[in-house]
């Protein structure tokens, strides 16, 4: 799927995001390039391990180099979780993350997924980089759902969700018949 860059981008370049084979070495390389977001060695090892098995989406440059990776987890048929998104530093703000989110959303809709979910560092933590991260997801229609101590008190976890379809609760369906 080819997706145009964000309207806010000044260039008219196009990025192609595709479902790809596992790229754990590329995930390790990309994570190492943005330590202010991914600076916890144990967490990075978990991401690299996850990159061996989770659904993988990539954007590659014209030379075939991986510029961005998103890993997707499917907990239930009606939910897809964006488990990891990482973009090479040099390409931040150029629409690669947006291309990945849009391609994954389109695929999820085709599969009948009702919700996209992402977990990120919560707003009660003062990290400026994660203010940008939350803004990125909000700009793509994700809504904050709950902040928890899932990752410990020092790293509050914000659950964000994006509805992909109008959902009717089963009890509402029965009451209208």
Low-confidence stretches: 1-13
Please bin the fraction of helical residues: 25-40%
Give the helix/strand class: alpha+beta
Biggest sheet record:
8 strands, mixed
Mean pLDDT: 88
What is the overall number of helices? 5
In what order do the strands lie side by side in the largest sheet?
A: 1-2-3-4-5-6-8-7
Please compute the radius of gyration using only Cα atoms: 17 Å
Distance between the termini: 40 Å
Q: What share of residues are in beta strands?
A: 25-35%
Strand elements, count: 8
Nutshell version of this structure?
The protein has helices at residues 24-32, 41-50, 96-110, 128-139, 170-175, and strands at 2-4, 14-20, 55-60, 66-76, 79-87, 115-121, 143-148, 157-163. With 177 residues, the chain is α+β, with helices and mostly antiparallel strands.
Structural commentary:
The protein is α+β, with helices and mostly antiparallel strands and about 180 residues long. It contains five helices and eight strands; from the N terminus they run E-E-H-H-E-E-E-H-E-H-E-E-H. It has helices at about 25-30, 40-50, 95-110, 130-140, 170-175, and strands spanning about 1-5, 15-20, 55-60, 65-75, 80-85, 115-120, 145-150, 155-165. An eight-stranded mixed β-sheet has the order 1-2-3-4-5-6-8-7. Helix 1 runs antiparallel to helix 2 (about 40-50). About 30% of the residues are buried.
